[in-house]
């Protein structure tokens, strides 16, 4: 049995696809009334038009997670420590993070946060180019599964792959985490460029130089280059920098247009500041990330940010 902690769009979409593939799934959310309604109506507002299969048990009672050998935590990274402290001890032997970001308080990735709370469990990270609506619609999706224990990783890969979700495994947990986290920052930059009318050429430049920053910081933290060139790095960057369906891209577009920011959790905002702190500790230069941090904090306009980037000293590539 698979337990999914977090009944937002992504967690619900994963639960739906695993249930369609024949797995029994417990879907946990903190709102008692909302989860009771989901159980009876077989639907959640976060995924309009999607019916919850009968194999999903929607609940706000964490006790129902006790029978799950594998737990998937699909909650925003900045909320993960609080969620872990409010839930009772899990008995699951495998806990998979399905969230993208770097905790702003600890500068840790999700698997480290989980491992500190549940040292008895083997942790893993699930990341890659994916939108909840695509997964819930049964559209083909490929994701990276990072797990240091390769035997457990292979077991999880087999258990969590479905006819529509193909998982590729790696032992490079750091690469999977940082690729999925840092691409959100670059997506904000690309959205701002498009929103400000700077064109697709500017977006392509930001994606390319942003990828260089991702690889620079991730390599300094021990990640492998081939991981970052895979699904959880380049693949996710390509998706989120090109679609308004990405929350990070949409927030960037609003910044570029001078519009009110969307009222939604946007992981790239906190990750930009966390990435800069990690870079400072390692004496690394991340100009695109620096610009995004200034934009979301209101210290820079899009025009100021682009001027700063374009007037930097000329360099070799």
From TrEMBL:
Sn-glycerol 3-phosphate binds at residues 100, 128, 130, 183, 236, 246-248. InterPro entries: 6-PGluconate_DH-like_C_sf (IPR008927), 6PGD_dom2 (IPR013328), G3P_DH_NAD-dep (IPR006168), G3P_DH_NAD-dep_C (IPR006109), G3P_DH_NAD-dep_N (IPR011128), NAD(P)-bd_dom_sf (IPR036291). Residues 2-151 form the Glycerol-3-phosphate dehydrogenase NAD-dependent N-terminal domain. Residues 172-306 form the Glycerol-3-phosphate dehydrogenase NAD-dependent C-terminal domain. Pathway: Membrane lipid metabolism; glycerophospholipid metabolism. GO terms for molecular function: glycerol-3-phosphate dehydrogenase (NAD+) activity; glycerol-3-phosphate dehydrogenase (NADP+) activity; NAD binding. The active site is at 183 (proton acceptor). It is an enzyme of class 1 (oxidoreductase). Catalyzes the reduction of the glycolytic intermediate dihydroxyacetone phosphate (DHAP) to sn-glycerol 3-phosphate (G3P), the key precursor for phospholipid synthesis. PANTHER family: GLYCEROL-3-PHOSPHATE DEHYDROGENASE (PTHR11728), GLYCEROL-3-PHOSPHATE DEHYDROGENASE [NAD(+)] 2, CHLOROPLASTIC (PTHR11728:SF1). This is Glycerol-3-phosphate dehydrogenase [NAD(P)+]. The lineage of its organism: Bacteria, Pseudomonadati, Pseudomonadota, Alphaproteobacteria, Rhodobacterales.
């Amino acid at each position: 049995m698979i337990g999914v902690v977090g009944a937002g769009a992504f967690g619900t979409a994963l639960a739906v696809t695993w249930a369609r593939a024949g797995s029994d799934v417990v879907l946990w959310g903190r709102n008692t009334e909302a989860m009771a309604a989901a159980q009876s109506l077989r639907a959640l507002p976060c995924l309009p038009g999607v019916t919850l299969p009968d194999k999903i048990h929607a609940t706000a009672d964490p006790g129902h997670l006790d029978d799950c050998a594998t737990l998937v935590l699909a909650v925003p990274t900045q909320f993960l420590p609080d969620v872990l402290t409010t839930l009772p001890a899990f008995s699951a032997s495998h806990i998979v993070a399905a969230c993208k970001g770097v905790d702003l308080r600890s500068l840790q990735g999700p698997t480290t946060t989980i491992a500190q709370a549940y040292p008895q469990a083997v942790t893993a990270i699930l990341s890659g180019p994916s939108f909840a609506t695509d997964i819930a619609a049964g559209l083909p999706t490929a994701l990276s599964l990072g797990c240091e224990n390769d035997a457990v990783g292979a077991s999880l890969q087999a258990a969590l792959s479905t006819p529509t979700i193909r998982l590729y495994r790696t032992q490079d947990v750091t690469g999977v985490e940082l690729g999925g986290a840092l691409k959100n920052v670059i997506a904000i930059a690309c959205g701002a460029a498009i929103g400000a009318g700077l064109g697709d050429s500017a977006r392509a430049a930001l994606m390319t130089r942003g990828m260089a920053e991702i690889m620079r910081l991730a390599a300094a933290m021990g990640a492998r280059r081939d991981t970052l060139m895979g699904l959880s790095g380049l693949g996710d960057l390509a998706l989120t920098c090109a679609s308004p369906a990405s929350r990070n891209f949409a927030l960037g577009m609003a910044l570029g247009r001078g519009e009110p920011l969307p009222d939604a959790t946007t992981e790239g905002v906190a990750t930009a500041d966390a990435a800069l702190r990690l870079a400072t500790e390692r004496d690394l230069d991340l100009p695109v990330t620096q610009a995004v941090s200034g934009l979301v904090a209101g210290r820079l306009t899009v025009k100021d940010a682009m001027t700063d980037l374009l007037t930097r000293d000329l360099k070799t590539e």
